[in-house]
TrEMBL record:
Source organism, top-level taxon: Bacteria
Higher taxonomy: Bacteria, Bacillati, Actinomycetota, Actinomycetes, Propionibacteriales
Domain EAL: 23-276
This protein's name: EAL domain-containing protein
Coiled-coil segments: none
């Protein structure tokens, strides 16, 4: 952090220089990685609790750099946002994931839904809507198979633009999911103002579901979502006990290491078959 010196002189602590350099070089490395095709996607299964079947996948970005090793998306997505690369990255994610979906469901022999994470900055401008429409068409999938995961932050910004953009997305036939639900400082009012199809319960509540307060929040989210005509998916499910609780409470879908981490598109059919057999 920037420290004010004794005479009011500002010091930059060495750590700050290092952080800034890191960020700069990470930005340059990411820019190059996009050119060199170093990014890939994995797909994490989403399981319907009633049937036990894999009904969808969430696309998650991976970056294995030859020089930096595996850089987690929590690190490189913010860098892409700040460095003006998120539009390019987001476009790549969208077209790659839609194309992979076509292949995965062909291998599996039945349709699947695809959830894609989008950052708020990606949504600025109409170009994005056309990109979605063309990614869907090129891949030959149905718009209703695509889910766009947004975070509460976008909804709290509360721009008329955001409502209009989400309405357009909806009218394409694409579903809208609020990711990490409950983690933000949201007012619940936005749930009726925006066209939302699904809530994804933040994994912090799921992981501490044995604590009564967290269980109460999970219960409330499920009841509220259903009352508003939305479906509910819980993320970060790691134990049978968590699954049991969510099933009892009527949660629709689950996702987490209990079933599978994200896997390459080519392995999805094998993983999905194993999950259904359990
Ligand atoms: P997220 O959207 O909340 O994604 C879920 C994260 O939880 C993923 O981390 C996933 O690997 C991890 N996870 C899944 N199951 C479990 C579990 O049972 N236990 C635990 N502890 N974790 C689990 P990942 O892949 O590192 O992604 C981190 C974040 O990076 C994502 O959080 C998302 O916000 C962002 N991200 C990833 N891919 C993209 C992308 O293509 N575009 C954008 N804009 N953001 C992305
Ligand atoms: Ca997500
Ligand atoms: Ca999440
Ligand atoms: Ca199972």
């Amino acid at each position: 952090a920037k420290a004010a010196g004794r005479n009011g002189i500002c010091w930059f602590e060495p750590q700050m220089l290092v952080d800034n350099n890191d960020r700069l070089s990470l930005s340059a490395a990411l820019r190059q990685a996009l050119e060199l095709d170093e990014l890939s996607l994995v797909y994490q299964p989403q399981v319907d609790l009633a049937s036990g079947e894999v009904v969808g996948v969430e696309a998650l970005a991976r970056w294995i750099s030859p020089t930096l090793g595996a850089v987690p998306p929590d690190r490189f997505i913010p860098v892409a946002e700040d460095g003006g690369m998120i539009t390019q990255l987001g476009g790549w994610v969208l077209t790659t994931a839609c194309t992979a979906l076509a292949r995965m469901q062909e291998q599996l022999g039945r349709p699947l839904r695809l959830a894609v994470n989008v950052s708020p900055r990606q949504l600025r401008g109409r170009a994005w809507l056309e990109e979605i429409a063309s990614a869907i068409e090129t891949a030959g999938i149905e718009p209703s198979q695509l889910e766009v995961e947004i975070t509460e932050g976008l909804l709290i910004e509360d721009h008329g633009d955001v409502v209009a953009m989400l309405e357009s997305l909806r009218s394409l036939g694409v579903s809208i999911v609020v990711d990490d639900f409950g983690r933000g400082y949201s007012s619940l009012a936005y749930l009726t103002r925006f066209p939302i199809d699904k809530l994804k319960i933040d994994r912090s509540f799921v992981q501490e579901i044995s604590v009564a307060e967290n269980a109460a929040i999970v219960d409330a989210i499920i009841v509220m979502a259903h009352a508003l005509g939305m479906t509910v998916v819980a993320e970060g499910v790691e134990t049978e006990a968590q699954e049991r609780y969510l099933r009892e409470r009527g949660c629709d879908e689950v996702q987490g290491y209990l079933y599978s981490p994200g896997v390459p598109a080519g392995s999805l059919d094998m993983v999905a078959r194993a999950i259904s057999r359990d």
